[in-house]
Task: structure prediction
Amino acid sequence: MGNTAVPRGTLHYATRREPGFSEVLLCRQGPVVSRESMQERDPWFESLAGSAALSQSELLALQEDGFVVTRGPVLVTDLPGLSHAYDSAVLQADRVDLKEGSTTTRVLDFVNRGPEFDGLYLHEPLLEACCKIIKEPFRLSNLVARTLNPGKVPKKLHVDFPNDDDGWPMVGFIFMIDSFRSENGATCFLPCSQGLATAPDTFDGVVPACGPAGSMLIYNGSVWHEHGPNLTDTPRRSVQGALIRRREKPATDWQTRMRPETLSRLGPLATYLLGL
Ligand SMILES: O=C(O)CCC(=O)C(=O)O
Result:
């Protein structure tokens, strides 16, 4: 390529490095550029950003409405096993990992509760969504079981993370162990409400995100949402997670939580997302 293709003043020579090498030495014609102004390259992010696992319409729904329900990573034939694994993991969990809320019961750290859950946070459409929404390298912040108890009604809409000057800080996902339906409290979203600074004080205009068991709901963490009313007499079970900017501290300290048996089966992408 001749110099004419390079904007004047930006011609530079970088020392050749392996992808992801943290320090890039820049020599350039024109004004000096500080190291701080350089974005570190992240080969995982670059490769995930090239994915096209979400359809155009799914991507549009996520970017405009703020949420989308898509296929999950688990084969239909494996769903009964996953459902069983969920119940036994919840039953066996240490009490300190159990959080009993007014409407839902949560169990922390589903990274370390069995191989059945390993694929949930590695799902390609989810990671593509993170690239497109967070727009910079990201990490897994938490992975929890969340059961909406029967007969419970929601209180008010909330956001998980407000947006800031850098954009959208979080992508959330909800893997449906049970089908999500209006009557069992499917998560409700106020479409296009990401960035809305004040809390809507009613549920007017919300849309339930419904799907068969095994679906994955992906959403922008800055969109207003809440579970719906569970009008049935059965719990509505899910595994939920959040991915945040890589430069931020995860809610769960994966280093200290990591069990040897989990670590032994994790691949490089999981290790990267957990920051191990
Ligand atoms: O379980 C649900 O449907 C709601 C989840 C939720 O509000 C959240 O994860 O922030």
